[in-house]
Specification:
This is RNA helicase. With 984 residues, this protein is α/β, with parallel strands linked by helices. Helix content is 46%, strand content 12%.
Length: 984
């Protein structure tokens, strides 16, 4: 029985909650908050920081908004941070609508609106810079909301999150909002350590049920069913554990189709070329038969009347079909995946629009729009088209006529009016904003997007379609991880808009249903820190703290926290390997002699052969550069391989381009190509000459085609394999292995060794191989253990040694053991860039002095750009001062890399002038089409790059020598579409 005192305590707690700020805050909603939202709010009201980890669309931001409410109620300021500007702008608008515009400010680096307001929305970098500068805006700060905090795993920008968390005053309550991560408790434990008392609130339940489907051939099938063959929810309300992979998928994909049925012919449902679809007028949340799925009571069929599992032998209409000689449904395991327009129409017939189809390339997204246009797909009615047209006319009015073609506005308008569009980073931000607005209003039915759309932007979709389960990760094509799958499909079915969400996988040849089911079932998303000390961070820390305190600050990072925890498992693995190495060592014996000595001689031979091979390759590279420099216009060359192979004629040779001579070629198919020494493994061979038309005439496709025809005629009788022709005429640098004294001595020693005559030598060497492999693995684990213990602090020490050598730090104090920034270091302290030290070195050596405003903008472009592709040499800028500045910057970068190598620090990337000429033209006043002429740089990339250029130029305005020019350069770059995008 409850005692009177316990009853009184419960009554008092209930009264306290009734009069709490949380109760007042919840009154603004017409629905009850979830338990995890209430738990996060109570933690804040009790004075604790809080980590809230919940699925996408679950309502995490409610806790962040309560922090805003609580701060205002307590008379304190609150900062709301987001990882990208689009999210900051979106949240700024939402808070201004709620609180009134006069109470909300916005700071995004290039936009400053009411920075002294009670509530300020900002990007995380802005807050980091405030902390390092001890800004007055931090006075009175009570709360900081960090939205999408799992972004700290981002390799480039993630460390900023940790810097903010570490340096925020302990009196500030932190609200960290994260997607569901599998190590939320670990992250929360770190927050507890660095921020003080912190509550960890984790919710793994989706607020909206999620169904999983697969498109196989022309069938839209449920991925999960129960024992009775009925569809099962995978996540969210109604999810069941008694689910299995739909056996119908395996049955259909097990058939192969005749070639004529796979590659042509009429599709069974008459999709091709249709202009209208049956599902487009259904409301959000409606099923195949028009009834909202959430209103059907307890009947399982009624709750899920959309895509259905059909028993063996039955079609979508319930009729029987013969799975005999034709192997069942078209487009099975042996056929191609359904075309994108057909996928869209299939989804529309099943009432699964609006949908986001994730295609993991920009070109793929644009290609999908073009395919839908060619198929004359139309998903909108006349009323919707009228609304869309009004939005387009208003939003796109600011774009000049001269830029419409380069932006592809005609095709964009046509597609959007028909109800579909692309969304990727290469698009103009204005166009992406229009897509987001129209999709949120339900006017766009399908968006073909890259995975960048998965980050937080509010674009509610009923369905998410994954065209493939692999994507290029920058190194290789790799399978999607469960975390990536969760992030992408988390956008399907948004709370308050849809009653359910749908994830759809487009199955192609060799579709692996069990693997897809495993991916869709697991929701692991581990958070891994990307934190690392940088030169800018080092001088900022040493400007605020002594050396010992600065090292301790780095050791409080989440990266070090994770590294120290992982050492326990590594130590256990090391002990296991030590036993294995000892066992293999005991087995390495030979009666004839010392087997390990024999193996060491073998290793020495391999090492020497590798040295000679590398020297030969270096000689090949030197010869290649020399041959490229000697080529003349009209010479026909045979190429040995690499990126370019076959025969071609030389059109032009640019001997002054950065990175070596660049040769412009015309191949036998009439295609123009550019070639640099690094593109071929050895020198090309000159085999003939050809009379060429005038250079300006080669701009004509017909002239190029005729020239290619003449080239083929000239090559008649030549070896079809150009590589054999190269070997006959040029060949590689001769190998010196046969004449190398050291190599011959080692081979003689090996042949005369006693073990060489052992009949069991091959068996003995297998044991040596096992011992060597285990020993190498043990040494690797030991290095990892050594490297992880205080790894960041040791890296910081290497960095400070470099900064001492370069003059950015100096010894101070009575004993001279403290480190403080010099005047140069204070300049570095204000530079926030991935190439911060290189930029500081260029300023220190005056490499950018004397440039005019367009020239400085171009050089700054090279300092912030990183080429996505390496198949094109940078365009020359017709200004000798700019060329000299770029050459000086490259020379300084090479010297800096040498210094970094001496101190064991990862090298800074050299300046990349790939699009500096475009920025130069733009800064001189050219309109967008003229600036981009002759280049394939997407307009969205150009605008985003201009923002980066402006950001660095703004940092240079404080420089005594460059300040005035930097301000003029900002004016030159921040104009037209760039200014409009920055200002929105």
């Amino acid at each position: 029985m409850t005692s009177p005192s316990e009853k009184y305590a419960a009554w008092a707690e209930e009264k306290r909650r009734e009069n709490s700020e949380l109760t007042a805050f919840t009154a603004r909603y017409d629905f009850a908050l979830d338990d995890f939202q209430l738990a996060g709010g109570r933690a804040l009201e009790d004075g604790r920081s809080v980590l809230v980890a919940a699925p996408t669309g679950a309502g995490k931001t409610v806790v962040g908004e309560f922090a805003v409410h609580l701060a205002l109620a307590q008379g304190r300021k609150v900062f709301y941070t987001a990882p990208i500007k689009a999210l900051s702008n979106q949240k700024f608008g939402e808070l201004a609508d709620w609180l009134g515009a006069e109470r909300v400010g916005l700071l995004t680096g290039d936009t400053s609106i009411r920075p002294t307001a009670e509530v300020v929305v900002m990007t995380t970098e802005v807050l980091r810079n405030m902390l390092y500068a001890d800004s007055d805006l931090l006075d009175g700060l009570g709360f900081v909301v960090m939205d999408e905090v799992h972004y700290l795993a981002d390799r480039l920008r993630g460390p900023v999150w940790e810097e903010v968390i570490i340096h925020l005053d302990r009196s500030v309550q932190l609200v960290a909002l994260s997607a569901t991560v599998s190590n939320a408790e670990e992250f929360g434990a770190w927050l507890q350590e660095v921020r003080g008392e912190t509550s960890i609130v984790v919710s793994e339940t989706r607020p909206v049920p999620l169904w999983q489907h697969v498109i196989v051939g022309e069938e839209l099938l449920d991925l999960f069913v129960d024992a009775d063959g009925e569809a099962v929810v995978s996540h969210g309300p109604g999810a069941r554990s008694d689910r299995q992979v739909n056996p119908e998928i395996e049955r259909i994909t097990s058939f192969s189709l005749p070639v004529d049925e796979r590659s042509g012919g009429q599709r069974g449902r008459g999709y091709r070329g249709r202009k209208g679809t049956r599902g487009r007028h259904r409301p959000r949340g409606a099923g195949r038969h028009g009834s909202p799925r959430g209103e059907r009571g307890g009947d399982r069929r009624g709750e899920h009347e959309g895509p259905r599992h059909h028993g063996p032998g039955s079609g979508r209409d319930g009729s029987r079909h013969d799975g005999g000689r034709h192997g069942g449904s078209r487009g099975g395991a042996g056929g191609r995946p359904l075309r994108r327009p057909d996928v869209v129409e299939l989804l529309d017939d099943a009432a699964l629009l609006p949908a986001i189809m994730f295609i993991f390339s920009r070109a793929g997204c644009e290609g999908a729009v073009q395919q839908c246009a060619r198929a004359r797909l139309r998903l909108t009615d006349d009323h919707e088209r009228g609304e869309i047209r009004a939005v387009l006319d208003e939003r796109l009015a600011e774009i000049g006529v001269e830029d419409e073609e380069v932006l592809g506005l005609h095709a964009f308008r046509r597609a959007v009016l028909d109800g579909y569009a692309a969304h990727h980073a290469g698009m103009l931000p204005l166009l992406k904003t229009v897509v987001e607005e129209l999709f949120a209003r339900g006017l766009l039915k399908v968006v073909f997007a890259t995975e960048t759309l998965a980050l937080g932007i509010n674009m509610p979709a009923r369905s998410v379609v994954l065209e493939k389960l692999v994507k290029f990760n920058g190194v290789e094509h790799a399978d999607l991880t469960p975390g990536e799958y969760t992030q992408l499909t988390g956008r399907a079915g948004r709370r308050g808009i849809d009653t359910e969400g749908h994830a759809v996988i487009v199955g192609g040849p060799r579709f692996d249903a069990p693997a897809a089911a495993s991916l869709a079932s697991r929701r692991t998303y581990p958070l891994r820190s990307a934190f690392r000390p940088t030169p800018n961070m080092a001088v900022n820390l040493l400007d605020r703290f002594d050396h010992s305190r600065a090292r301790e600050t780095l050791e409080t990072s989440f990266a070090q926290f994770q590294a120290d925890r992982s050492v326990v498992g590594l130590a256990r693995r090391a002990r296991e390997l030590e036993d294995t190495v000892e066992d293999y060592r005991a087995a390495v014996t030979c009666e004839r002699g010392d087997l390990l000595e024999y193996a060491e001689v073998q290793e020495a031979i391999s090492a020497r052969e590798k040295e000679l091979s590398q020297a030969r390759a270096a000689a090949d590279r030197d010869r290649t550069r020399s041959v490229f420099g000697d080529l003349r216009r009209g010479e026909i060359i045979a190429l040995p391989g690499g990126k370019r192979r076959g025969y071609a004629v030389v059109l032009d040779v640019d001997r002054h381009v950065l990175g070596g001579p660049q040769v412009d070629l015309l191949d036998t198919e009439g295609r123009r190509r550019s070639l640099r020494p690094g593109d071929v493994p050895s020198p090309p061979a000159v085999i003939d000459t050809l009379r060429l038309p005038r250079p300006e005439a080669l701009g004509s496709g017909k002239v190029r085609k005729d020239t290619a025809s003449a080239l083929r005629q000239r090559l008649a009788g030549q070896d079809d394999d150009a590589r054999r022709e190269v070997r006959r005429r040029a060949g590689r640098t001769p190998s010196t292995a046969a004449q190398d004294p050291r190599l011959q001595e080692l081979r003689t020693h090996l042949a005369e060794h006693p073990c060489a005559a052992c009949p069991d030598l091959e068996s003995h060497l297998r044991w040596v191989g096992r011992w060597r492999k285990s020993r190498g693995e043990l040494e690797g684990v030991q290095r990892r253990i050594s490297g992880r213990t205080s790894s960041l602090a040791r890296r910081f020490d290497c960095l400070t040694d470099l900064l001492l050598e370069l003059g950015y730090l100096e010894h101070a104090g009575e004993d001279g053991e403290e480190l403080v920034p010099t005047t140069s270091g204070m300049r570095l302290r204000r530079l926030f860039s991935d190439r911060d030290l290189l930029i500081a070195e260029c300023l220190e050596h005056g490499a950018w002095d004397g440039l005019d405003a367009p020239g400085l903008a171009a050089v700054v472009s090279a300092a912030v750009h990183e080429t996505r592709r390496d198949d094109r040499a940078p365009e020359l800028i017709p200004d000798p001062a700019v060329g000299a500045a770029l050459e000086a910057s490259s020379r300084i970068a090479a010297e800096l890399q040498s210094a970094e190598a001496r101190h064991g620090i990862d090298p800074t990337l050299p300046p990349d002038p790939a699009i500096a000429a475009i920025v130069h033209r733009w800064a001189r006043g050219a309109h967008l089409a003229a600036a981009l002429e002759g280049n394939d740089l997407p307009p969205g990339d150009f605008v985003r790059h201009c923002r980066q250029v402006i950001d660095l130029l703004d940092q240079l305005t404080a420089d005594e020598r460059l300040g005035r020019t930097a301000r003029a350069a900002i004016d030159g770059v921040r104009r037209g579409l760039v200014a409009q995008e920055i200002g929105r």
